[in-house]
Amino acid sequence: MATGPLPLPPFLVGDPIPWFSLPTGANPDYKLHSVGGRYVVLCFFGSAGDPRARARLDACLSHAAMFDDQRMVFFGITTDRQDRDLGRIRDAEMGIRFFADLDGALTRQFLPPDGSGVTYVLDPTLRVIAALRFDDPRDHDARLRTLLAGLPNADRHAGVELHAPVLIVPHVFEPAMCRKRVDVYEAQGGRDSGFMREAEGKTVSIIDHNFKKRQDCGIDDPELRGALMRRVHRRLVPEIHKAFQFNATRMERYLVACYDAGSGGCFRPHRDNTTRGTAHRRFAVTINLNAEEYEGGDLRFPEYGPRLYRAPTGGAVVFSCALLHEAMPVTKGTRFAFLPFLYDDAAAREREAKMRSWARA
């Protein structure tokens, strides 16, 4: 009896995959988007108790030496609670983790219509390079082996050097304004700076020096805040509109941030709008206040390669809050920066509506 072509997986080469979060052995809410900047192997095997699924899973894990957590990572997705209970799967110290999708809701989004298991290989922007069915007659295992062996370095995954979609604008603050901001910080001092996470349905600030080492000093003087806002409005907002066709009307956060080499000041890869309390943010702005006085500390956007970005003193780096980015460790001296977020009236209305709903809860 003639058979037709096998049904295609729902995500094909070039497709971005939806971000998701699921528990792993060590993290109850592991977010896939946090691994941007690396190649990712996603194996939807269902149950390691199924011999065919076990064989495909073992084929993936035969490349374990490549899953170094720096260039490439592996995630297996199980729908069988017994896989972990019986020790059929086990996270490695680095590079190999297993998601528990016990109700199968996520897995069903990724499988072909006939329910066949599938392995996806993703590029550093989390777009599909290959979708390999478990029962593909071209042989899942051989194709996976050939593909992984031929992957270029993560910074050239598109075959060319990539540039992050960022805007660099000099002369937003004049030197005297920059010096004044540094003086304010040095006179008042800073305090530990946290980062936002979702916990029990709320957006909360977390302090974790393994992830972020920074001291912040808030700017409370209304006159000074007005002077900063006017400069951003006059000198930066028109450039943002020209480059991104976005009219920023609101500015959040007036603070001077300090990354000090003595404490290893840095901020590991993160996105700025992934919680309910930060979803209104549209663009992040980094205005360097003393760019010539420190080493290290540049911005990096891992999804687009290893290139580093630094604006001159008084200049700004502007980028979408959805981009994965990090502040590299300061290796000498002390870096000072002004770090607001920009959004518009529509986002402000969304934010206010959320705040009203939280107040009623």
Write up this protein:
This protein is of the alpha+beta class and 361 residues long. The protein has two domains: 21-156, Glutaredoxin; 167-360, q2cbj1_9rhob like domain (Jelly Rolls, Sandwich), CATH 2.60.120. The protein is 24% helix and 29% strand. The protein contains seven helices and 24 strands. It has helices at residues 51-61, 81-85, 105-110, 140-149, 175-188, 222-244, 345-360; strands spanning 21-22, 30-31, 39-46, 72-78, 96-100, 118-122, 128-133, 167-169, 191-192, 195-199, 202-206, 212-213, 215-218, 250-252, 255-260, 266-270, 283-288, 294-296, 299-300, 308-309, 316-320, 325-327, 330-338, 341-343. The strands form five sheets. Strands 8, 9, 13, 14, 15, 17, 18, 21, 23 and 24 form a ten-stranded antiparallel β-sheet that branches. The protein has a five-stranded mixed β-sheet with strand order 5-4-3-6-7, with helices on one face. Helix 1 links the parallel strand 3 and strand 4 (72-78). The longest helix is centred in the middle third of the chain and has 23 residues, at 222-244. The radius of gyration is 23 Å and the shape is elongated. The model has no long low-confidence stretch (mean pLDDT 93).
